[in-house]
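Posting for a labmate who doesn't have an account.
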Amino acid sequence: MESLTRLGRIFFGTGMLAFGLMNVVTGIPVLGIEPIPDGAPAHAFWAYATGVLLIAGGVGVYLGRQRARIAAVGLGVLLFLWLIVLHLPTLAMHIHNGSVWTSAFECFALCSGAWILAAALADGNSDRSAAADRLRRMAGTGRYAFGVSLPVFGALHFIYWQYVASVIPGWIPGSPVFWAYFTGCAHIAAGLAILSGVQARLAATLLGSMFTSWVVLLHVPRVFAHPDHLDEWTSLCVAIGLSGVAWLMAGYFARQASGRQAHLERPDQREPASA
């Protein structure tokens, strides 16, 4: 349980930190995930400013429980603002653009991961404040946000199967078209499992394994092949961040199962009713 959350924390923090470093190094907002219009005033300023926030949040996630929780909340707020202020207007103007849908729901999924992480860091300690309770409720919202995002990714795999097939490494056995459809089905199945709660922990664990394998087998080689392509770096960071969200989701369901089991095993402390 803790190992899944720890793994997710490392991946998620690394993805956020890498986004921030790209912003600061290039002076360009995160491609796709931070769609600040090209004509917006102080374009470079916003890239640097949000880069500093992402770096602070990414580093903060690695720190002690309380600081990491504050960092996770801050990242969740930042990603949610991007979703509302940047992505929704862009999606409304380009409703038929698959890339816009992909970027919007990647931001949505990463935002859900921040809330899940913040709630995970509120669990397992003595904090029973109203703020901690709100974070725990937000984890439920994050679960459904992530669950909704996955079928969207799956549908996009079916709609744009030719592109997906084109990025499958040639050395992987089987038809690239098969893998395009298979991974689309995997996204949809995982989303339905997470939304319904049926085999949700298994689905999140398998999803985390799939995303992590993409980091190693697909995105890292593409970055090495095209180190000057900022879009490849962005795709790598998104894959790392989504891997983190999936592992955090697996930890969330593991905690739920542990809590139910503890409740069932807890001896009844009530006194017997008087005759």
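Reply:
Got it, the structure tokens are right above this. The longest helix spans residues 230-265.
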